Amino acid sequence: MSRLVVVSNRLPSGSTPSGGLVVALQDALADGGLWVGNSNKLTDTPADRLTRHEGGKFTRMSFDLTEEEQRDFYLGYSNSVLWPLCHDRVDLMELLPQYLESYRAVNKRIAKMIARELQPGDRIWVQDYHFLSLGHELRQLGVTQPIGFFLHIPFPGPNAFAALSHGQEVCRWIAAFDLFGLQARRDVSACLQVFRTAKGAELLLNGRMKLEDKIVQVASFPIAIDPEEFARTARNAPTAGLDDAAATIIGVDRLDYSKGLPQRFRAYGHLLDAHPELSGQVALLQIAPPTREAVKAYQDIRDELEQLSGHINGAHATLDWTPIRYIHRSVPRERLAGLYRGARVGLVTPLADGMNLVAKEYVAAQDADDPGVLILSKFAGAAEQLFNGALIVNPHDIAEMAEAMNQALNMPLGERRERHQSMRRVLLDKDVAWWREQFLTALSASWQSSQPQMDPA
Ligand code: ADP
Ligand code: G6P
User: What is the pTM of this model?
Assistant: First the structure.
């Protein structure tokens, strides 16, 4: 079996991971291999070798960033250019030249360090938007092994993409991979449309794209969870923390502007205004650990939510009832599973989201005999898979979301069971092992087809 080398910005550690990427890959790489990622330590002088960490089921190796790289590569190009671009917030993009320069330089440096560790027969699987140019850099160094890439966030449409003045270069980065994996069909279609606008690009059959002398396969692989394991965790988990007197509506998201939290809070306020009979009968538990706090857009969203929750609680709270509980902390996985299970409604209403694993975890955690209801934004990649069972909403439409909450709270048991069963089937059918296998099989096929054919003579 050839070795799998995974590269991602977050390297799994012993502490509770709160990003979907880490959660999914930890499950997917449990059977061996090498994982390269950020040490999360800043350095004055960048090393030219990766640091090896002992322990665990697979080898972990890390690189350090300098303070400047953390600012320009991570907070800058990754999270102030690519993240807003891919989440339909071009207005929040900060296109500074030093961000792009640092992104190129960090990817080049990491490529050099990875290339020294590679063995013949390795397969390299690059994760997410921090490393879009890594495949290109590895190829420049003469690496010939299969290199696949998976984008965990949405792919931008051609209009948004045009806001990148160096779009042609980004297309060249993409074309350097053997396989470019995306979450949803809508992302594949956006990517093909973007490529159509690249100079000298050709769209071939079956999702293959050619730019200069490089051919890349583009396809969707909706990321998943291990539903059985998550259900077990939820069954054995404590539910303490839920309001016993009221039906809980739960939201669990990083405190990110893409998650639609202000709209969600407003919709809940609207629900309470429109249905005074719900006073004391319902509670919104929103768990939202802060992230990327050095970026201004993240500080702004935090301030806005504090004001909004204060306002709604001020308007509706009684002496013995708090309508919104808003918690800024990471919660251990077991605890989270128990909270999902005890909540009558799961509220997953991002304005833009690659997949959204919380939606899948909420479904997996439910008691099949008496399940809760998932309210899901049509802009989450998960909506392509869960549209039959979830209440699909437009997160910009506050009244529609409030009505969906009311419908969920009053949904008869039979309908809840039916909807839950249909979603559970999807989760069981397409779990995280399926995701990994689909991707790796497609990577081998795509790499094989790019190898020079042996002359039969
Ligand atoms: P994103 O990748 O944008 O953060 P996802 O919904 O795809 O969004 O993945 C989030 C992951 O992080 C889920 O596995 C979820 O359980 C976990 N998570 C989110 N918030 C918390 C929290 N407060 N405490 C612990 N885990 C969290
Ligand atoms: C999303 C991204 C991941 C990222 C995670 C947490 O899931 O797709 O690549 O690791 O958010 O964000 P952070 O910036 O804290 O790593």
Answer: 0.96
Residues 156-206 have pLDDT tens digits of 999 999 999 999 999 999 999 999 999 999 999 999 999 999 999 999 999
Q: Is CATH 3.40.50.2000 correct for 4-224+433-449?
A: yes
Between the CA of 21 and the centroid of ligand 2 the distance, in Å, is 7
> Which pLDDT score, from 0 to 100, does residue 244 have?
72
Print burial letters for 33-45: b (CB count within 10 Å at least 16), e (below 16): bbbbbbbeeeeee
Give the type of residue at 453: Q
223 lines ligand 1 (CB under 6 A): no
Ligand 2 pocket (Cβ < 6 Å) reads: 9-10, 19-21, 128, 152-153, 291-292
Same fold, 4-224+433-449 and 227-429: yes
- Confidence class for position 16, pLDDT limits 50, 70, 90: very low
- Asked whether the beta carbons of 377 and 393 are under 8 A apart, the reply is yes
- Per-domain residue ranges of the chain: 4-224+433-449, 227-429
Q: What is the pLDDT of residues 308-330, one digit of tens each?
A: 999 999 999 999 999 999 999 98
To the query of whether residue 152 is one of the catalytic residues in this protein, the response is yes
* Distance from residue 73's CA to the centre of ligand 2 (Å): 14
Q: Is residue 405 within 8 Å of residue 271, measured between CB atoms?
A: yes
The two beta strands, 147-150 and 59-66, are: unpaired
- Name the helix (H) or strand (E) containing 361: helix 357-365
Catalytic residue among 87, 130, 136, 152: 152
* Ligand 2 atom 3, closest CA: 21
- For residue 334, the CA-to-ligand 1 centroid distance in Å is 13
Is 353 an active-site residue?
Answer: yes
Question: What is the distance, to the nearest Å, from the Cα of residue 76 to the centroid of all Cα atoms in its chain?
Answer: 19
Calculate how far, in angstroms, residue 198's C-alpha sits from the geometric centre of ligand 1: 35
Fold of 227-429: Rossmann fold (3.40.50)
Which protein residue's CA is at the shortest distance from atom 11 of ligand 2?
19
